[in-house]
Design a protein that fits this description.
Number of strands: 13
Strand content: 15-25%
Helix content: 25-40%
Largest sheet: 7 strands, mixed
Shape: globular
CATH superfamily: Ribonuclease Z/Hydroxyacylglutathione hydrolase-like
CATH architecture: 4-Layer Sandwich
Bound molecules: zinc ion
Radius of gyration: 19 Å
Distance between the termini: 55 Å
Number of helices: 9
Amino acid sequence: MLINRRFLLRTGAPALAAASLLPAPVFAAEQKKAGARDITVRDVNGLAVFGGAGCNVVALPGPEGALLVDGGRAVNAAVLLKAVSGALKTKRVHTLINTHWHPEQVGCNEAVGKDGGVIVAHEVTRLYLGRDSHSALYEGVIKAVPPKARPTKTTFNTGSLEFAGETVEYRYLPAAHTNGDLFVHFPKHNVIAAGGPVSAVRWPVMDYLNGAFMHGFVRSYEILAAVVKPDTIVVPADGPTLTGADIVRQKDMYEALFKQLFAHFNKGFGPKDVVEARPLKDYEAQFGDPAQFLEAAYRSIQLATIPY
Ligand SMILES: [Zn+2]
């Protein structure tokens, strides 16, 4: 793997977003310091994974430029693209796949689009990027991106492309983190870029006002668990990687939680009652305080089930 170690400046997980109960904008602190990080790169089964731009960026060099999965924040786009060129010895990004439309994922879109790169995403991601959006996870308005920054090739479910002599597959994770999540599978490397629904070290975030829904979240884990092998390396949107075996364990955990949340629902619990019942207490030592995740998961069930 051609990775220039000059860019290996720091290792370890990026700082984690401070936990707080919804509806506080949980990414606000991250937004303020988003331009302050160095770009790191590490080898994951022959793929380059860049950190520090706002999310994990999975990269593969090709003869006509690099393929990237996600692109970090716009404020970090120039430094990330320079790091990619330096590490992979590529002159441009040929293909960029957005796992979803959150600002941490799409910050390189404009530069890549202006340079003639192909931008692949779920159709919902393309629609979201074309308009102003609101989210319980972010302060203020998430502005529409310029036309050149919008995806040029979309799918509603599955797709694949040939790149640098290998097949790269992508597939919808229904209503897991947003309502337009894709994961990207590199079978030759036994690596999956899983995007926002997955985390190794903290509870995932559900953008429940923008389509994330506990039913889809659990279904997405079932899809991932069916695709991974035990030793598959799974790269989440943030932080350290997981294995396929970890994904299967988490799938079991979330399926059990799903049943428990409906038991709570049938008792007439509100979100605070669910948090106080501590249905994930056996996992708090590993993943931290689940209050924010539980509240989002439960509110997603309430939103979909209780008519207003
Ligand atoms: Zn996200």
